[in-house]
Structure formats: structure tokens, C-alpha cells
Amino acid sequence: MSISFHNNWRDYVYFNNGQKEIMRNFIRFGWLAAAILAGFTSYSSHAAGNAAGIETGGGWIRATAPGQDQAGADLSITSRQSATLIGASSPACRTVQLHTMTMEGGMMRMREVKEIELPAGKRVNLRDSGYHLMMIGLKAPLKEGETVPLTLSIRLGKGGVVKIRSVAEVKSLTAAPPRETGHQQMNMQMN
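RESULT FIELD:
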């Protein structure tokens, strides 16, 4: 007795012409439904970001030297309501920490902090406020002209947490910090 297996599923599935048309339409409708659902999800998230009233802009980071696996990013955040930056992430590195910088005994000291307050209606520039985002475990060198995606975790008042997408432009290794202006373009995207 011998048993044979067929690799072609069509050997076992028989459709008449009407059933074939139904299957084609089902597959087409499935792709359409998936596209509509993806668009709705994206729109809902963006609308929620606008409702949250959070804007980011001026993100920048210096290019890194060969072998360097850490870098500090700066950006400005404005929230219409009282909020708190409680975390950040980026696909460009293993982890992102919130850091404070202080002068102690003539030396600059960096320490991780758990949160950064974002007062209602006030633009908070991290560098000018003594903070930065420390990107640790860079996956590749940062090259001038690239942009680094960032996702900020922000707690709104006493409410929930929203994820805000932003970017930091990679400047030259010797670039001076950009000057903050009142007319700087603000970018905001909701995740």
C-alpha cells in the first residue's frame, strides 16, 4: 500500500465559476477593509494627538564619532495642558533615558530623571531647561543630514499617557546648539 501527498491545494478544492467569483470578491473586500481600518486607526491617533494639544519641534542631535554608542538629543515640547514627559524611545538605539545636566564643583554632571514637567502653554526646550534625551546603545553611527525618529511618552495631567512621534535632525559633530526662536516651526504627530 502506498500513500502519496499532494503539495498543490488546488487538487482538493473545487470551485464552480460562481464560487470563484465570490472568492475573488471576498479577497478584494478583505484588502479594502484592511486598508480602511488602517486609515481609520491612523486618523484616530492623529486626531487624539491634536486633542492632546502637544507639539514638538527643533529636534537635533550631533553626529557621532566612530565607535561612539551614546548621544544626547534636544528638542522643544509645548503642551496646551499641564503634562509630564515620562519616557522616550527610538529605533536608532537600545534605550533612551531622560537626563538632567548640572554643574557641580566645576564639572558637568549628568543624571537620569524619571520625568520632566511640561507646564501648560509653555514651550520647554530640553537643553535650555537643563535636560536632554540620552540615546544609549546606538545601533549605527549617526551621520550628518540624517533624521532620527523619536517617540515620546507623555502623561496628560492626571490622565492617560499618549505617544507622540517626533524627529531629531543629525547635525555635524562640531555643531553648536541651535538658537531657540519664538518662530520655530513646530511638528507634531501622534502614534
